[in-house]
Design brief:
By secondary structure, this protein is mainly beta. It has a domain at 382-517. It is built from four helices and 43 strands. The strands form six sheets. The protein has a six-stranded parallel β-barrel. It has a four-stranded parallel sheet with strand order 5-7-10-12, with no helix packed on it. A hairpin with a 2-residue loop joins β42 (505-509) and β43 (512-516). It is elongated, with a radius of gyration of 32 Å.
């Protein structure tokens, strides 16, 4: 075995000095070590091929300088990176900057790193027997890349970093079946001369089945499509602030479970027809880049969203009480987003937020039984009905919609405040089963609302007993409190149960409270 020290030998004198060493379990194995970067150019390439043909195990990074055809000889395991390099000023005879990398015997490799290019460069990698690659990096001036790996086994690629490529119209992650994380950002995906129009702006993989940590796709120009047809499980999926030339579509037709997700995309269509659960971890910083993943799922600026089988959004079983609770949020959807259809959703451990969706008129959450909190504000919803909801662990805040009616026939417990405010159309609030509100109850009707505090009190004369305070007010056409509002808008403080009310009454006057026993 020859251990090479930096500068000990020049490539012109000798490439590698090999001493055979049988590896455990491999009778004819030869291991080759190089203690520093090994650089191969056109002059020394033939020597590299000759020596590498005797190596089954190679340790060290290999730089290929302006070598258009790279053959890795007999190497089976490469504990290092393949790094092709192309500078147009030094190799004008390679105007297209094409690298073809071959390795018929390679089975595992630490990494393929393509970032040392001065001009848009094409990279074709053929490793037909490889089953494991730790890292693939395509960064700065990669114009296209093609990965030809083993097609009869499932391939694992731990990490893929694809970023800062100004002429990369298509990204195909096949044939990787399993990955730890994927980072795709700051690429320009405009149609090129060799690109079919239907392929431009696409991120695809027909082989990817699972991603353990995260998929991050952000700030890519002209992104039009994400398609992972066989992806079933993923850690976090984050797609945000890309710049599509046309309304994009993001399809995950087989996805069943994910840890968290965030789609923040103007006019995008997101389809996840098989998604059943979101088991959210606590928020954390990514291991590669400085961005935060939040617990839960967040959807912003979308045109359409399909999740008909989503049942639960929760924290993992081993989570701590102090962890961020798994949330589900829909915010500022496009005006054409008129229906939120979650027909099987039964539980959200954190807060369910439906906020500032100007075109949203209908919400179907008919199976919802429990939420950590409920915020429905700033939408165009007329009827808000939650027929199966029994428990809200935190606050309920419903305000700023076009509400005519709020109906929660089975709601018994609110662990925080219960706040419902009309906006000119409210006629009815139906909460006949309500028993306990830990915080305050605040009901407010605006001018034009037909909701009556007096009528509500008659139906629920026990309302005083179930909350720490109760307020109900109405505003007439002149913008002043009506008769019911004057009678009922005073806050009754300190009332926890009927026995407390019998013992005493709080009288509030000029900020001085007198306790009358």
């Amino acid at each position: 075995m020859a251990i090479r020290s930096p500068g000990a030998l020049t490539m012109a004198a000798a490439l590698l000095v090999l001493l055979p060493q049988k590896a455990i379990g491999q009778e004819d194995s030869v291991s080759c070590f190089y203690a520093s970067q090994l650089r191969v150019n056109k002059t020394t390439y033939d020597a590299f091929r000759e020596e590498a043909s005797h190596c089954s195990y190679f340790e060290g990074d290999i730089w290929f300088d302006h070598v258009p055809e790279i053959n890795l000889g007999g190497i089976e395991t490469l504990e290092g990176y393949i790094i092709p390099q192309y500078w147009s000023t030094e190799a004008p005879e390679l105007p297209e900057g094409v690298f073809n990398i071959f390795g018929d015997t390679v089975k595992t490799i630490q990494g393929i790193s393509c970032y040392a290019f001065s001009e848009p460069t094409k990279v074709n990698i053929s490793l037909p027997n490889v089953t494991y690659v730790e890292t693939i990096t395509m960064q700065s001036h990669v114009a296209s890349f093609d990965l030809d790996f083993a097609d009869d086994v499932e391939i694992t690629v731990d990490h893929a970093v694809i970023q800062y490529n100004r002429e990369l119209p298509t990204i195909d992650l096949a044939p990787a079946a399993h990955m730890d994380w994927i980072l795709i950002k700051f690429n320009t995906m405009t149609e090129g001369n060799d690109t079919k129009p239907e392929d431009a702006g696409a991120i695809r993989s027909n082989s990817l089945q699972s991603v353990d940590e995260y998929i991050y796709v952000g700030a890519n120009e002209d992104l039009r499509e994400i398609s992972f047809p066989v992806l079933e499980t993923a850690g976090d999926i984050r797609v945000r602030r890309n710049h599509p030339a046309a309304p994009p579509t993001y399809d995950f037709p087989s996805l069943k479970s994910t840890r968290a997700m965030s789609f923040w995309e103007i006019n995008a269509t997101v389809s996840m027809p098989e998604l059943e659960e979101i088991v959210a971890a606590r928020k954390y910083w990514s291991t590669y880049d400085r961005f935060t993943f939040w617990a839960g799922a967040f959807f912003v600026n979308l045109a359409e969203l399909e999740m008909p089988k989503l049942k639960v959004v929760r924290n993992p079983d081993d989570s701590e009480p102090t962890d961020d609770q798994a949330e589900l949020s829909f915010w500022k959807m496009m005006d054409g987003f008129t229906v939120l259809d979650l027909p099987l959703l039964a539980s959200v451990q954190g807060v369910l937020t439906i906020d500032s969706n100007r075109g949203l008129k209908d919400v179907n959450i008919d199976k919802l039984e429990q939420v950590g909190g409920l915020v429905v504000t700033g939408n165009a919803i007329g009827l808000f009905v939650v027929p199966e909801l029994t428990t809200v662990d935190g606050d309920v805040h419903i305000e700023g919609n076009y509400l005519r009616r709020v109906t929660a026939p089975k709601l018994t417990t609110v662990g925080g405040d219960l706040i419902i405010k009309g906006s000119g159309n409210l006629s009815e609030i139906e909460i006949p089963s309500l028993e306990t509100v830990t915080g305050s109850i605040i009901l407010r009707a605006q001018a034009g609302d037909r909701f009556s505090c007096t009528d509500f009190k008659k139906r629920r004369d026990d309302i005083w007993d179930m909350a720490s305070s109760f307020e109900c007010s109405e505003t007439n056409e002149d913008g002043e409190d009506g008769e019911d509002g004057e009678d009922n808008s005073a806050v009754v403080l300190g009332i926890r149960d009927i026995r407390s009310r019998i013992r005493g009454v709080w009288v509030v006057a000029c900020s001085i409270c007198w306790l009358i026993l």
